[in-house]
Design goal:
Elements (H helix, E strand, L loop, with lengths): L1 E2 L15 E2 L6 E6 L7 E6 L11 E7 L3 H12 L4 H5 L3 H19 L2 E7 L8 H15 L3 H22 L10 H4 L1
Antiparallel strand pairs: 1-2, 3-4, 5-6
Helix pairs in contact: 4-5
């Protein structure tokens, strides 16, 4: 007998199992059950993938970077006074001061943004593209269509760049399977 379930089906334990005497299922997936239970459902199909209909949301922390922010950082760094670091006799205290100074400047110039990524997002949609789409949609709702079309062009360019990077390691001379994947 061959066990096909290798994931927990209730809490951290694999209580629900599926055994076969010969390979007859192409895909076996453990999903949240459609009925009210604390057990998870096992879906086994003889051919093709199992498509999950529910989205899984993930909050991602992202720092947006742009040329004006880089210029602001360089301007800010030219004004840094490191005399307190040099006067500190304890190396740990000097490191703590340096770390506090750099993290503070980093947080003010490159603030953290929260982006919600979903399991249904295409692989080329990055947090940066998601932020651009959010800004474009906000401008459209505000009626600022010229600015929104400029953001739409930036989104298109960012998607092209992400797809190009994703396909950079695929060699079409070695076969089309990797390219279509």
């Amino acid at each position: 007998m061959i066990p096909l379930v290798h994931q927990p089906t209730r809490g951290g334990n694999t209580l629900d199992r599926l055994y076969v005497s010969e390979e007859c299922f192409a895909t076996v997936k453990v999903l949240n059950s459609a009925i009210k239970t604390d057990h998870r459902a096992i879906v086994a199909v003889p051919h093709g993938p199992v498509i999950t209909r529910g989205k899984v949301l993930t909050r991602v922390v992202y720092r947006r970077r742009s040329p004006p922010q880089h210029a602001a950082l360089l301007r800010c760094l030219s004004e840094v006074d490191l005399s307190a670091l040099l006067e500190a006799s304890d190396p740990q205290r000097a490191w703590d001061l340096f770390n506090m100074e750099t993290i503070g400047r980093l947080d003010t110039i490159y603030p953290l943004k929260m982006v919600t990524m979903t399991s249904t997002d295409p692989p080329y949609v990055t947090p940066a593209i998601k932020l651009l789409l959010k800004k474009k949609n906000r401008l459209i709702r505000a009626g600022r269509l010229k600015e929104a079309s400029a953001y739409a062009r930036r989104v298109g360019q960012a998607i092209k760049r992400a797809i190009r990077e994703d396909l950079s390691d695929v060699d079409p001379r070695s076969g089309m399977r990797d390219l279509w994947r």
